[in-house]
Amino acid sequence: MRNTSKATTLENKFPLLAVEEDCIISKDADITVGFRVELPELFTLTSPEYDAIHASWLKAIKTLPAYSIVCKQDWFIEESYKPDAGNEDMSFLSRSFERHFNERPYLNHTCYLYLTKTSKERAKSQSNFTALTRGFIVPKEIQDKETVGKFLEAVDQFERIVNDSGFIRLQRMTTTEIAGDGNTPGIVEKYFALSGDTTCLQDFSLGAGEMKIGDNYLCLHTLSDTDDLPGQVFTDTRYERLSTDRSDCRLSFAAPIGVLLSCNHLVSQYIFIDDHRENLKRFERQAKNMHSLSRYSRSNQINKIWIEQYLNEAHSLGLTSVRSHVNVMAWTDNREELRRIKNDVGNQLALMECKPRHNTIDTPTLFWAGIPGNQGDFPAEESFYTFAQQALCFFIGETNYKTSPSPFGIKMVDRLSGKPLHVDISDLPMKKGIITNRNKFILGPSGSGKSFFTNHLVRQYYEQGAHVLLVDTGNSYEGLCKLIHQKTKGEDGIYFTYTEQNPIAFNPFYTDDNVFDIEKRESIKTLILTLWKRDNEPPRRSEEVALSNAVSLYIEKLKAYPHLRASFNTFYEFTGSEYREILKGKNVREKDFDIDNFLNVLEPYYSGGEYDYLLNSEKQLDLLSKRFIVFELDNIKDHKILFPIVTIIIMETFINKMRFLRISLFFNQLSIRKTTIGNGLETSETL
């Protein structure tokens, strides 16, 4: 009985012969070299940088010999976020953050590039001569070792040119990555399964009206005719949703069918490099034929004009004639959802000003030609003639956000999908030369989430070992500080605030190691000058020298008498007694340094004065060892005396930490206004 079944095995129709020396060999003797492509993250490039990437691709393509094929495949697979909540050292808030995003869907983007050397006859083959409908014949020219050697040299040069651009990185795929092994699927298996991590092949149903792989229904949109193309193409376009009148957010021209298309899809971009001279000769003959037939049809006359314009640009501008093709293959296991996906793909193509064409005839043929290593089986009638510059504009130029390899950073989310990412906004940008300092400025209107984000930021910095010093107005960090205080059993999480019952008090003369370096001395002098002089009363040089001598001699006395308690009270007493006698011995005139005026002005801060608590704290708190400190200044931000003093103490604490530790200083609720602190020194109030 005759077998009339149309079913066949994949082995009978499989177009690939072997993978040798990291090259894919087809049964038609086409040679393909595969690369994994690392693209820059979206929203990170400017228009000149997109132009530079485009120029690198163009320069690289010109190195390939005739009858080569460049195929770039961008895979966008829907996956679910898996939280990292198994770490026992993870804090409650970090674990809650991870659980909040559990199974959050996102698109995982991987990009591959295939460079194929085929023959002249294979380059002209059409869909009725595909490997699905015929046997395999080895072309004569592919048997030439010199041809193969020149192609592999051109591939190496192609890789160097693209990598030297600094924006894109090509990494050559190994035999294991192509063919897989017992544990890991190769790129060929992934292609047949339409999955990124499966090794289980499924049944194919190839039909003219519908194609199905396993439970997934496929739909295909193609750009295979000049009538489907926009009037103009560009290397990049303006992304209006994130652009303003003053800022310009750029994406590649093909971005609408890339990361902006939220469904499972595969974008394949082909460039066929034929013999450039033969192409132009053939167009010359077509132009002559159209000229001779122009009297019979106006369309022939128009075609003649278009062909001549194409030839003129090719000759005058030195452009390379190529063929190109772009297709978007999307899939889903739900028939109802397939209709929505078709509309989404069509809408995204329309954003590129392309004419969406849902191809229901050539889906099996184009799917088969997209097999890694089988690009030579592409049907020629599905391509259109253009120049290499224009064809490269259809290359997707960016990928989604990536997790930073740096161990230090914060958790943020992808602005498109909401997937959590570990981002280093301090160390890695410094190493790459993107920034020259680690300063940050969080700007936004009231209620936009500045304090919420800063809580999130400082908590993660603290958990990674950084020292955090916060200056706050509004009690935005009291809760986090109390949480750290409770968790460390009072060892950390220090919260300073001013109340009449418990006012802020310091001891500017206290050091844990009894070392008074130049910065400590200058801090003390600045503080005393602030208390002594008014804003509009700059100190004279003689007064600065006298004060500097007083501080230095007092410090020497502290070192000579270790049991003497360092405080503003003892400094005041030293100045009024011992230092007064020293000035008399030097015959320092009153107009040069009026010590009585000095002591009179500072008397409110001495024992029994109005502010005697401020600089004579009994708590010898070593802030150097505390990793989370909050200064709440809401009650004194408008106080003319307390605010400048507290500001100086805060800066001293920060500078002291900065010398030895990794420290982050945060000012919350900023309202910029100019202030000079008593002595006329260069200080500013930004609270």
Automatic annotation (TrEMBL):
Gene3D superfamilies recorded: 1.10.8.730, P-loop containing nucleotide triphosphate hydrolases
Signal peptide: none
Transmembrane domains' residue ranges: none
Domain TraG P-loop: 409-662
One Pfam assignment: P-loop_TraG
Segments forming domain TraG N-terminal Bacteroidetes: 3-55
InterPro entries reported in the protein's UniProt record: Conjugation_ATPase_TraG (IPR022509), F-pilin_assembly_TraC (IPR053155), P-loop_NTPase (IPR027417), P-loop_TraG (IPR043964), TraG_N_Bacteroidetes (IPR024451)
Classification via SUPFAM superfamilies: P-loop containing nucleoside triphosphate hydrolases
Identification of the protein by name: Type IV secretion system protein virB4
Lineage, uppermost ranks: unclassified sequences, metagenomes, organismal metagenomes
